[in-house]
Amino acid sequence: MDLESDGASLSVRRIADPPGLRVGGEVDTTTAGEFGEALAAVVRCCDGDVRVDLAGVTFIDLAGLRVLADTAAELGPGRALVLGPMAGHVEHLIRLVGWDTAPGLRLAG
């Protein structure tokens, strides 16, 4: 799925092994809704952890980060939203806001 809104461009591709998404482009207030819907669809259909590859993300704002944190919090016991690989600026922002230790969210090492 490729989305374009107000000049922002987002690419979201489903991956099978491990189950999850590969995300590229800009995740911001204009694309966060669509990103959240794609992520929710993967979470619903898969058991266990869900991987989100953020290596291609060129920009992410608080709305995009909130989608990740909220989704992780709703996964329930024994499941995690595993982020990685990811661009350095994305990891830095996640750590800066303190969400690297959010419930259900795990940064891939």
From TrEMBL:
Alphabetical list of Gene3D superfamilies matching this protein: STAS domain
InterPro entries: MlaB-like_STAS, STAS_dom, STAS_dom_sf
CDD domains: STAS_anti-anti-sigma_factors
PROSITE patterns in alphabetical order: STAS
STAS domain mapped to chain residues: 21-109
Highest taxon listed in the record's lineage: Bacteria
Name this polypeptide is given: STAS domain-containing protein
